[in-house]
């Protein structure tokens, strides 16, 4: 991200019909948005963390790394949008069913994707902005004070800050900040930042941008041994495996 703006790459938009079943493996790095044009589409996560039924005019977001199955019956049609980011756009999958500008933008994207690639990119940026707005509006009011820190962490996870600095950004005590952060994310601030750093490093390695040592340093890890240990714990395979494949 630059100046808080999402910068995606490898945008692909296509339409799926005719009883298509698609497996989305955990190792995939693409963010995915599925907009149902007609009928009903089902999206099921491998470990049953979610099972969405996405009806006509609705959309679902799937973060990179989730293992899910997309099922499109014979009488249904969907637009699938995929793009790459250094880290997840959102923490969890979600479905937007009504009362959101994102649905209107997705509908427009259906009309223009085959005509004008530049305009499709612009609409995709608009869709991302509207999804971010939707997610924030759905969160209980008490969590809104955390958003400046969440945005900062997601934009620059490699930057080393003390926890009390994050707390001051929210106008909170460190104890209160830690408690509220854990309630909202399910992780401590350090665990959250570490995971974002791992996702950032994984993207660099997958793109063949740099070595394991360079990826660790550029994503904010001071210890290569700690990085390798945490990477394997999170992904289930070593960082060197990705580097060799690239």
Explain what the structure shows:
- With 246 residues, the chain is of the alpha+beta class.
- The chain has two domains: 9-138, Sandwich (Jelly Rolls); 143-245, Homeodomain-like (Arc Repressor Mutant, subunit A, Orthogonal Bundle).
- Helix content is 43%, strand content 21%.
- The chain has nine helices and nine strands.
- It has helices spanning 101-112, 117-138, 147-155, 163-169, 174-185, 189-206, 212-218, 224-235, 239-245, and strands at residues 9-17, 21-24, 30-38, 40-45, 51-55, 59-62, 68-71, 77-84, 94-96.
- The model has no long low-confidence stretch (mean pLDDT 86).
Can you tell me the overall shape?
globular
- Main β sheet profile: 5 strands, antiparallel
Strand residues, percent = 15-25%
Task: Please state the CA-atom Rg, rounded to the nearest Å.
Answer: 19 Å
Structural class: alpha+beta
Tally of DSSP β-strands: 9
Tally the helices: what do you get? 9
User: Separation of termini?
Assistant: 23 Å
Q: Outline the low-pLDDT stretches.
A: none
Order of helices and strands: EEEEEEEEEHHHHHHHHH
The CATH topology assignment of the largest domain is: Jelly Rolls
**Order of strands, widest sheet:** 1-8-3-6-9
**What's the CATH class of the largest domain, please?**
Mainly Beta
Query: Which CATH-level-2 architecture of the largest domain?
Result: Sandwich
Give the count of structural domains: 2
Mean pLDDT: 86
């Amino acid at each position: 991200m630059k100046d808080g703006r999402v910068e995606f790459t490898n945008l692909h938009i296509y339409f799926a019909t005719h009883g298509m079943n698609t497996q989305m493996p955990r190792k995939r790095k693409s963010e995915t948005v599925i907009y149902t044009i007609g009928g009903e589409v089902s999206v099921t996560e491998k470990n049953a963390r979610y099972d969405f039924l996405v009806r006509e005019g609705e959309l679902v977001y799937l973060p990179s790394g989730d293992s899910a199955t997309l099922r499109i019956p014979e009488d249904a049609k969907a637009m699938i949008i995929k793009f790459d980011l250094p880290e997840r756009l959102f923490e969890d999958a979600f479905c937007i069913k009504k009362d959101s500008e994102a649905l209107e933008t997705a509908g427009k994207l259906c009309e223009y994707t085959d005509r004008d690639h530049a305009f499709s990119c612009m609409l995709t940026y608009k869709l991302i902005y509207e999804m971010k707005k939707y997610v924030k509006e759905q969160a209980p009011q008490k969590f809104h004070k955390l958003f400046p820190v969440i945005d900062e962490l997601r934009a620059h996870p490699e930057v080393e800050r003390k926890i009390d600095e994050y707390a001051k950004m929210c106008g909170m005590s460190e104890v209160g900040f830690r408690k509220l952060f854990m309630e909202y994310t399910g992780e401590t601030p350090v665990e959250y930042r570490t995971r974002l750093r791992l996702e950032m490093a994984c993207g660099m390695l997958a793109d063949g941008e740099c070595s394991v040592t360079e990826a660790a340093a550029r994503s904010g890890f001071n210890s290569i041994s700690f990085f390798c240990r945490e990477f394997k714990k999170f992904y289930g395979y070593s960082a060197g495996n990705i580097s060799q494949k690239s």
